[in-house]
């Protein structure tokens, strides 16, 4: 006689094992990306590291990270470039080649377009706390964000020991990069309201920065708490999608945060400059 209960339990265990193996395979590929940022990987080479077919690997990677593997690799390179710019004295040219770019012009355009500041401007701003926008020095009180004005509303929670600034933004891409469509800055967890944004489909992200009191803490986000990533659909200024968020530790499969928070409040276009 067939033991239906045992069969169901066995199937659940099998699915759990498969999911765990998928996570391990994707994390193995991401670890290899971190170690070899200066190299170009084809989809086939990444799939070999994961012990999967290219088609299967691409599908699983997107399911777990939200983005294709090549886009994830590109984001890791720019994240590493930002860290090198802010923690070493390497020239912009040296940083460019260190993270796998062969063209300085391409690197500067890509970096500026996705992070909101040119490499040279970011290095200069991070080293000058006095030049940071006043809004970042004093985040909006929660009470002000509860005012009745159009926009996306929700609440964000954080671990009990968290203390820092919380940045919330709506982005067109599944990676938080470039300038957000709308954003909010909080000094403490609680209610938030993103400024009015056009109707459309967006991704909602939040980051909690504990190094808010230091200029460098506003530019490096590898250890920032994370929340969101879900798609939000706005119609007539409203959404039926859940907008509540809970800050957590970053996971290996989380795409890098590629925007620059101080640039959110600077509406002036970045100056065009030669970098060496």
Explain this structure to me?
There is one protein chain. This protein has 276 residues and is an alpha+beta fold. Among the domains are: 4-65, no CATH class; 135-264, Immunoglobulin-like (Sandwich). 40% of the residues lie in helices and 16% in strands. It is built from ten helices and seven strands. Strands 3-2-5-6 form a four-stranded antiparallel beta sheet, with no helix packed on it. The longest helix has 32 residues, at 4-35. The chain is globular and about 70 Å long. The N and C termini lie far apart (76 Å). The model is unreliable at 137-149 and 267-276 (pLDDT under 50).
Low-confidence stretches: 137-149, 267-276
**Arithmetic mean of pLDDT:** 84
* Secondary structural class: alpha+beta
The string of secondary-structure elements, in order, is: HHHHHHHHHEEEEEEEH
CATH architecture assignment name of the domain at 135-264: Sandwich
Could you say which overall geometry the principal axes of the C-alpha atoms support?
globular
Report the sheet with the most strands, covering strand number, pairing sense and barrel closure.
Answer: 4 strands, antiparallel
Strand order of the largest sheet: 3-2-5-6
Question: What CATH first level of the domain at 135-264 would be assigned?
Answer: Mainly Beta
The share of residues in helices is 25-40%
The oligomeric status of these chains comes to: single chain
Number of helices: 10
- Reported by name, the CATH topology of the domain at 135-264 is Immunoglobulin-like
| C-alpha Rg (nearest Å) | 21 Å
Residues in β-strands, percent: 15-25%
Number of strands: 7
């Amino acid at each position: 006689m067939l033991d239906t209960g045992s069969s169901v339990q066995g199937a659940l265990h099998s699915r759990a094992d498969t999911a765990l193996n998928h996570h391990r395979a994707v994390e193995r590929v991401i670890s290899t990306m971190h170690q070899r940022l200066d190299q170009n990987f084809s989809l086939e080479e990444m799939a070999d590291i994961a012990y999967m077919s290219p088609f299967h690997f691409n599908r699983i990677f997107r399911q777990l990270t939200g983005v294709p593997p090549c886009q994830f690799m590109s984001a890791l390179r720019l994240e590493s470039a930002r860290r090198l710019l802010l923690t070493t004295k390497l020239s912009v040219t040296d940083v460019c080649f260190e993270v796998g770019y062969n063209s300085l012009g391409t690197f500067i355009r890509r970096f500026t377009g996705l992070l909101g500041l040119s490499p040279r401007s970011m290095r200069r701003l991070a080293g000058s706390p006095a030049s940071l926008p006043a809004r970042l020095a004093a985040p909006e009180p929660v009470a002000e964000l509860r005012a009745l004005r159009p926009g996306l509303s929700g609440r964000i929670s954080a671990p009990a020991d968290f203390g820092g600034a919380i940045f919330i933004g709506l982005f067109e891409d599944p990676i938080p990069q470039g300038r957000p469509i709308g954003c909010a800055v909080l000094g403490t967890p609680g209610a938030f309201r993103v400024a009015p944004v056009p109707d459309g489909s967006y991704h909602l992200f939040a980051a909690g920065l504990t190094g808010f009191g230091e200029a460098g803490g506003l530019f490096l986000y590898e250890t920032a708490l994370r929340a969101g990533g879900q798609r939000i659909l706005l119609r007539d200024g409203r959404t039926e999608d859940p907008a509540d968020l809970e800050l957590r530790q970053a996971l290996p499969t989380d795409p890098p945060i590629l925007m620059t928070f101080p640039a959110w409040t600077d509406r002036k276009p970045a100056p065009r400059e030669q970098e060496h």
